[in-house]
From TrEMBL:
Gene Ontology terms, MF aspect: acyltransferase activity
Main EC class the enzyme belongs to: transferase
Pfam families assigned to the protein according to its UniProt record, in alphabetical order: Acetyltransf_3
Superkingdom in the source lineage: Bacteria
Domain N-acetyltransferase: 18-187
InterPro entries: Acyl_CoA_acyltransferase, GNAT_dom, Ribosomal_N-acetyltransferase
Keyword Acyltransferase attached: yes
EC number: 2.3.-.-
Descriptive protein name: GNAT family N-acetyltransferase
Keyword field: Acyltransferase, Transferase
Length: 213
């Protein structure tokens, strides 16, 4: 893709095992395939928007459209950076960083999913650590938020490992039922104290105006 037109295509975040990039069309097709193959046990629903309650074809197509939509709707006042995650060369999931009025609030929020075949390998922790480094070290965030269902110990465990503190609860209607989510908040000092993964960021400078910084 033409990074000189849309500099975010030149942004690259890496850890010892992972590479996170805004996907070009070929990579986006791979990401759609991972979503189609399954993201979680069908007996549970870890997302407030139950986008995985669909056929494999619809999940893949929805993933493809979602990422393109984040590019089309981007503005410095409201943006979602939706990065494809590669582990040792293979697309395994998606890591998002979202913010509104970031230039003023210096707050962002993370969200992610990982292909079911890649669970249990520590990838979720490493890809979150990567995007946190981008937020705090690259963009100067003061706070990064997350949230997870109270019955989602894997996601909550990742947050605690990375230094997040509990920030109350909220209730969402999911599949027609009330579900409780635990809110989590990470400040710069706690991020610094819990950094355990080496992260490198390339191609950020041409993107700063797009982030509103």
């Amino acid at each position: 893709m033409a990074a000189h037109v849309w500099p975010l295509y030149g942004l690259r975040v890496t850890t010892p095992r992972l590479e996170l990039r805004l996907p070009d069309l070929e990579t986006l097709a791979e990401l759609a395939g991972v979503a189609a193959d399954g993201v979680h046990d069908g007996a549970s629903m870890p997302f407030t928007v139950p986008w995985t309650d669909a056929s494999p074809e619809e999940r893949g197509r929805g993933t493809f459209q979602h990422v393109l939509r984040t590019v089309a709707e981007w503005s410095p006042r409201a943006w979602t950076l939706s990065l494809a995650v590669r582990c040792e060369g293979k697309v395994v999931g998606r890591q998002d960083l979202t913010a509104s009025d970031f230039a003023v609030t210096r707050e962002a929020e993370t969200g992610s999913w990982l292909g079911l075949a890649h669970h249990g390998r520590g990838i979720g922790t490493e890809m979150r650590a990567a995007v946190l480094h981008l937020a705090f070290g690259g963009l100067g965030a003061r706070w990064v938020m997350s949230a997870a269902m109270t019955d989602n110990p894997a996601s909550l465990g990742v947050s605690r490992k990375l230094g997040y503190r509990e920030d109350g609860v909220t209730v969402a209607a999911v599949r027609g039922e009330a579900r409780t989510l635990r809110r989590l908040r990470l400040g710069r000092e706690d991020w610094e104290a819990h950094r355990a993964v080496r992260v490198d960021v390339e191609g950020l400078e041409p993107c700063r105006e797009l982030f509103g910084v």
